[in-house]
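Minutes, structural biology subgroup

Action item carried over from last meeting: produce the structure token record for Sodium-coupled monocarboxylate transporter 1 (Armadillidium nasatum). EB confirmed the sequence was re-checked against the source entry. Recorded below for completeness.
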Amino acid sequence: MNVENAFGIIDYCMFAGVLVISSGIGFYFSYIGNKSPEEFLMGNRTLKTLPVAMSLLTSYVSAITLLGYSGEVYGNELQIGSIILGGPSALIFASYFVLSVLYPLKLTSINEVCT
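Output recorded by EB:
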């Protein structure tokens, strides 16, 4: 095992600190800050466009995606370009047609459509 790449005591302390702070924020907003699951999960449906868009963007473009694109281009050349063409057209379709049907239903998850 290469000792130079191992975590040290400072690394473990920083990692634990980030987990404790994140957990503290989560517990505060789940127990003290909000009263209902609707408020906690959906922001009481009062969020503006920018926070929702940034949340969707960060969940769509992950680090795995960024790392995987280079391997995909190396392995299959530029066939990944179909995603560049298909992604925006799927977003436009979903925002005008699917969202206009699902938003008035006040659903928390797409799984509620089937029940």
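Discussion: Helices lie at 9-33, 37-42, 49-60, 63-76, 81-102.
Next step: EB to file the record with the rest of the batch.
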